[in-house]
Every structure is written in C-alpha cells, then in structure tokens.
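tmp note - Homeobox domain-containing protein
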Amino acid sequence: MLNINSLLNNDCEQDNNTRTPSLSPSLTSSPSSVSSSYSSYPFPTQQDFWDKEEDYDDIRVKAKRRRANGEQLEVLNRVFDRTFFPSTQVRAELGRQLGMSPRTVQIWFQNRRQAMRTKERQRLIKLRNESKVKSA
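out:
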C-alpha cells in the first residue's frame, strides 16, 4: 500500500540530489494524420430517431461539480509541493484518502500546473516590460 504521509511529511530530509519538479511542456505530439473525409459516415435519419424506443428514466444525470474543501486543498497543495506529476498510484491513494475520484485528483493537478505556468508567464511579461521602460 502506498503511503501518502511520506510525501506529506515536512520533516522528511531531502538529499542534495533531489530536483525541483519541472513544468516543461509535454514531449508527446498529437496524431499527425487525421482523416478529414466524412463522406462515408452514416448520419442518422429522422426515421431512425422515431424507430428507437428509449427509456429516459435510465439516463444518468451528470454529477454537479464541487470545489475541493479546505482540508482537501491543504493535502493536495502539500503533495504538489513535493511533485507536480503524481503517479497513478499516488493519485488513487489521494483520491481514496480525500474522498475524491483519481480522475478529479488528476484534473486538480493539471489545473494547478496550468495556473503556475500562467502566473510565471505573466511574471516574465511584467519583467520584460519593466526592463523596456528602464532602458528607454
């Protein structure tokens, strides 16, 4: 069993070889060839809709989105301070301990990384603008 407490322990000694997590962009690329021909796609006709008898009582309603509470945020931020990219096992364990799905934990980390990138980008733009003003 994975122990999240080892990630959260602030008294844990870090050796000098430990690197700060990087926010470098993903090295994977999107698929290069996507077919643009949809001519053979079988579009449904109006008659197709009338022929199907669906029981709308069985359709599941999407759950309402919830914000993480203070305790969840505290734990998530402490783990984020240790690693920007938690493993699948860490996400699953965090989800279990915090009462969240692993997918929700994954999305929280994605949003947090993007917020850091945005903040860093804004900081660099501000520095660049300040240096232009000083040199002018």
